[in-house]
Structures are given as structure tokens and as C-alpha cells.
Design goal:
Length: 438
């Protein structure tokens, strides 16, 4: 995609969001009601219940986008609906080989790395056996259907499937083929890393919310525990949807992946298993004292603290809801400009980082030295998230819609006043694009 010239001055208006927050929220509520019903009927299967609820949400949003928003006809979908379908059987078979090679590489990575051999990922393997074969059986039909409608049918699947033959005859792929293969593998690497994590996490949060609900009658902190797990359940339902629904049929496919090693580094170090090393060995900001204990003797302040904290966690969850089918780290899949993103370019990062200060209260410790150390460690983690925000801005600035959105936010965002006082915080398209060059 051509880079935008810094000399071009985009109109200062907020572009239409790639997904509709209001409908996503309604679909999410329907999914939660379904999940509550499934959990009450069979609380022993939080993973299946959570994934089935996520499937319902995805179907509802997908129907809305197809029939109401008609996202499949967006120019960015890469589909041509004006001409008759022209599927090529040999080309589709090469693409199926490309898919098989992709899945083989992922399976090899799972087999190679000990991280995926322990008990933590056992729920994911069980879920994969339950649902994976059905999805795999649908893949040839989708590839066949899609091949005849692509404006550019020689995609990453095709080039990867053709690669063994090229190597066999002593040829190398050209620059465009290497670019498409790299883009293809980067997108699948994102899914291979995050889907197992999100599937495991969503089951854990469903179980946590269910257990907290059972003791809700105790009131007080039990209510906070329930709302805590509920917000993360909502977040993770949409995470699982986002990482799996990368389909041109809904214009929710991966346009491109993060092009810089630094962007990948600051993103991955915020997730397990990497964050465990970062936190335990370098940046431990918790010392066992939490806000509930600290404010135990101040019930009114404790209540206000809890309300603000739940508000931050709800903002975090609703930021993920705003993506609908499109949530994903490290990839561009359409620009989101409504919901919490109407007020901030990074509402999830802001609310998450503020919530950590309120939950861990690193400034409260057994000694001033420990308190200073805790605060410095959390400040460094905040800085890592700031770096993530900056790399994402550079990454997304390849899309002119994001440039218009970010410039609009400079003047109309909730923190626009802060940017006017601290100009280095303001979005600058020329610098952002330069950072994201490959």
C-alpha cells in the first residue's frame, strides 16, 4: 500500500468506523445471556460454553455486517461482485497446499516449543479437537468460493503453495511473492500465538465469573469480583472472535501485519509466557498489599474506589467490543473510530494501565524504598504500553483513514488538552509513517 505523503493535509473529520459499536454491544449482551443460560445448565464446561457464546456473537455481528452494512462489498475486501465467479481448480488446489503448509508449520512450532506441552494449554487442545476438524472441513469450500471472487487471486496461500515446486526446480520466488508469503505467515503467526492464549483465558474467566456469581449474596467485595471477571469475559469473548474471524467475506481479513521487530517485541512481552519473565525477574510492582485491604477501614472511599475501578475495567472491555469481528494485536483490519475510540486513540491501554495503579497500589508498601521500587517498575510497564501505542500508530498510519482519525483526535479527543500542553504526545503523521516503513 503506498505511504501517505506528509505534505497531504487530510480533512479534519472522524472517518466512519469499520465496525458498529452499538450493534456489537447488543450482540455481546445476547452472547452473555446465552452464556449465563449455558453455565447454569452445565457449569462444568466453561470453555465450550464460552466458545459457543462467542460463536453466537460472531454470527449476529456477521449477519448485521453482511446484510445491513454490506461490508463484503467494501473495496478493501478485495472482492469483485460485478463479474461472474471464475474459480480455477488448479489455483484453488495450490492454495489448499499453501494452507496445509501453513498449518503444518504451526503444528511443528507447537510440537517444538515446550511452552505448549504443559497443562495450561490442555483446554485449547481439547477445544481444537472438538471444533478444529469441522472448521478444517469447511476450508476447501471457502477457498474454492473465494478464489473466483478475488480481484487478485494470486495471494499468499497461492504463492506459499507454489513455493515447494519453485524450490524443487531450482527457482526462487520474486520480490512480490516473497512479500505476500511474508505477509501471509506473519498474519498466521499472530493467530497461532494469540488464539490458544485467548481460548484458555476465556474459559478461566467464565469459570471465575460463575464462581463469583455463586457467592454474590455476600455483597461487598464479592460483587467486585463478579464484575471483574465479567468485564474480562466480555473482553476475551471478542478477542477469540477477532483472532479467528479473519475473513474477506466480512472485510475483516488481515490487511498487513506489524512491519517492525520492535513493534512485535513490545507487544509480545506484554503476554504470557514472556510477561512472566518480565514481571517476575525485572518489573515486579506488586507486594501482596491490594486496594481492598488498604481501604478496609474506609468503607465510603473503598466504594468509590471500586466504582472507578469497575468503570476502568468496563472501558477496557468495551474497547474490545468496539472491534466486533476485527480485534487483533499486531495486524491492521480496518480502523475503529466509535465506542471508546470516539474519545481516545488508546482507551484500552489507558484504562488498563490506570487500573493496575488502583489494584496493586504500588505506592503503598512496607517501606518507602519498596514503594519507590514498585512505582518505578509499574512506570516502566506503562512506558512499554506507551511504546506499543506509538508503534501501532505508525503501523496503522499506512491507512489514510487512520491518519484522518488520529488528526481529528488531536483536536477532539478526551485528552486533546494534554496534547496541546505536551506537543510530543500529539499524533504526527509524517513521523509515524517513517517509523513504520519496511
Amino acid at each position: 500500500m503506498p505511504e501517505r505523503s506528509s505534505a497531504t493535509a487530510p480533512s479534519l473529520e472522524r472517518p466512519l468506523s469499520a465496525s458498529r459499536f452499538g450493534y456489537n454491544l447488543l450482540a455481546g449482551i445476547a452472547g452473555l445471556l446465552f452464556l449465563a443460560w449455558r453455565q447454569s445448565a452445565d457449569p462444568s464446561n466453561p470453555y465450550d460454553n464460552g466458545l459457543q457464546a462467542g460463536l453466537l456473537v460472531a454470527v449476529l455481528i456477521g449477519l448485521h455486517e453482511h446484510f445491513r452494512l454490506r461490508t463484503h462489498r467494501n473495496p478493501s475486501s478485495g472482492l469483485d461482485w460485478e463479474r461472474a465467479a471464475a474459480t480455477s481448480l488448479p489455483r484453488a488446489l495450490v492454495k489448499l497446499l499453501g494452507l496445509a503448509l501453513t498449518l503444518g508449520l504451526i503444528a511443528g512450532a507447537y510440537a517444538l516449543f515446550p511452552e505448549y506441552h504443559g497443562a495450561f494449554y490442555q483446554p485449547f487442545w481439547r477445544v481444537l479437537k472438538t471444533y478444529g476438524l469441522g472448521l478444517l472441513a469447511l476450508a476447501p469450500f471457502y477457498i474454492w468460493w473465494l478464489d473466483g471472487r478475488l480481484k487478485q487471486p494470486l495471494d499468499g496461500y497461492w504463492h506459499l503453495g507454489r513455493l515447494p515446486w519453485l524450490l524443487l526446480v531450482g527457482k526462487t520466488p520474486n520480490a512480490e511473492a516473497r512479500r505476500l508469503i511474508g505477509h501471509h505467515l506473519a498474519g498466521w503467526a499472530v493467530k497461532a500465538f494469540f488464539v490458544p492464549l485467548m481460548v484458555v483465558y476465556v474459559g478461566q474467566e467464565v469459570r471465575g465469573a460463575h464462581n463469583a456469581w455463586l457467592v454474590l449474596s455476600r455483597g461487598g467485595y464479592a460483587l467486585f469480583e463478579f464484575l471483574f471477571h465479567l468485564t474480562f469475559t466480555i473482553d476475551l469473548l471478542f478477542c477469540v472472535i477477532g483472532y479467528t474471524m479473519t475473513l474477506r467475506l466480512f472485510d475483516s481479513h488481515i490487511r498487513w501485519a506489524e512491519p517492525t521487530a520492535f513493534g512485535w517485541l513490545v507487544a509480545l512481552m506484554c503476554y504470557q509466557p514472556f510477561f512472566a519473565v518480565v514481571e517476575n525477574q525485572y518489573l515486579r510492582y506488586e507486594d501482596g498489599i491490594v486496594w481492598g485491604q488498604w481501604l478496609a477501614g474506609l468503607p465510603l472511599l473503598k466504594f468509590v474506589w471500586a466504582v472507578v475501578l469497575v468503570g476502568l475495567l468496563a472501558t477496557y472491555a468495551l474497547s474490545t467490543v468496539a472491534f466486533g469481528l476485527r480485534f487483533s494485536n499486531l495486524t491492521a483490519r480496518g480502523i475503529i473510530t466509535d465506542g471508546p475510540y470516539r474519545y481516545s486513540k488508546h482507551p484500552a491501554y489507558l484504562s488498563k494501565n490506570l487500573s493496575w495503579w488502583m489494584i496493586a497500589i504500588p505506592f503503598v508498601a512496607t517501606s518507602p524504598g519498596i514503594a519507590i521500587s514498585n512505582c518505578l517498575h509499574l512506570l516502566i510497564i506503562n512506558a512499554i504500553y506507551f511504546a506499543r501505542a506509538r508503534t501501532e500508530e505508525a503501523h496503522l498510519s499506512r491507512d489514510p483513514d487512520y491518519v484522518r482519525y488520529a488528526l481529528w483526535m488531536n483536536e477532539n479527543g478526551l485528552l486533546a488538552w494534554l496534547g496541546r500542553r505536551l506537543p510530543w504526545l500529539r499524533y504526527r503523521p509524517a513521523g509515524a509513517v517513517a517509523v513504520g516503513r519496511t
